[in-house]
Write a structure and sequence with these properties.
alpha+beta, 11 strands, 5-stranded mixed beta sheet, 12 helices
Length: 297
């Protein structure tokens, strides 16, 4: 799933996509993964990652036809560049990405004043990360340090579960950690996630507040797809448009399902691709059990 730092674009400071893109450039996933999570994760690069629904390369064929219908309503990069997360192979990369972020903030009208990014109206660029899990603070605080170097007045607030849910339901937040789970057959739920109508309903899953006519049209293409090929093409088109609008800062996913057990079982050579069904499909293996017993002495 797309696990992410999700912006509340109902807030004025996050309505410019350049600001949101700058936040992604400031996030050093590689440092976080190495220093805080034991290199255990892969970065998420799509709302439909690890599936045929993920947008890759440049749009072509049926996907391009769908995108051409909304060409005037989407960022031009949708047609010209493949969307990718910034990657920090070195400290030099991290500095370059911070420099790019600073330029984007300036283009969006935010300039340093007394060490804080400020727009022409004298408003500071602020960002509060709302959490309900204290153990997530250790992942957010280094990110906040990077944002503060750029002049963002960033902070983290951890609240109890009931208060967190109330604030999310009423869209009373700047940034939250949100996960958007998908199936291999997307449909009506896409309206709940990204549809304009859902953006104004308290408690809806459109926590970001997306009201985008191009997104609405592509959702309809998904729901009304006449066959699998159209469904895949329309979903890739939606994925591409969501990514290029920079609605979230993607986080990470684990490429494995971690299971600990004594190795006394046999299992099929070919397993289902997207869940831990091997926990339900196994048999006792006398040979494996003997090897374990011998190994344990």
């Amino acid at each position: 799933p797309m696990q992410s730092f999700a912006f509340n674009i109902r807030r004025a400071q996050f309505q410019d996509p350049r600001v949101r893109q700058a936040f992604n450039l400031a996030f050093d996933f590689e440092w976080t993964n190495k220093n805080l999570t034991y290199d255990a994760y892969h970065r998420v690069g799509s709302y439909f990652d690890n599936s045929e629904l993920k947008a890759t390369g440049l749009p072509h064929g049926r996907e391009l036809e769908f995108l051409n219908e909304v060409r005037a309503e989407v960022p031009p990069e949708v047609f010209a560049k493949e969307w990718k997360n910034p990657v920090n192979h070195s400290e030099k990369d991290a500095r370059q990405h911070l420099s790019m972020a600073a330029k984007l903030f300036a283009e969006a009208g935010y300039h340093p004043k007394g060490g804080v990014l400020t727009n022409a109206a004298g408003e500071h660029l602020t960002a509060e990360f709302l959490l309900s899990q204290p153990d997530f603070e250790r992942l957010v605080l280094p990110y906040i340090e990077k944002l503060e170097k750029l002049g963002v007045k960033a902070s983290v607030r951890t609240v109890d579960t009931s208060q967190y849910q109330r604030r999310v339901d009423t869209f009373d937040f700047d940034i939250v950690v949100e996960t958007f789970r998908q199936s291999l057959s997307p449909g009506n739920e896409q309206r709940d996630y990204w549809g304009s109508e859902a953006a104004g309903k308290d408690g809806s899953r459109n926590v970001i507040g997306i009201k985008n006519p191009a997104v609405d049209k592509l959702i309809d293409k998904i729901i009304l797809a006449k066959d699998r090929a159209d469904l895949v093409a329309a979903t890739r088109a939606l994925d591409r448009v969501l990514l290029w609008n920079h609605y979230v800062v993607p986080q990470w996913r684990t490429p494995f399902e971690r299971v600990a057990m004594w190795n006394v079982y046999g299992r099929p050579a070919k397993l289902p691709s997207r869940n831990s069904s091997f926990l339900r499909v196994w048999w006792w293996d006398d040979g494996a059990a003997k090897r374990l017993a011998d190994g344990r002495g």
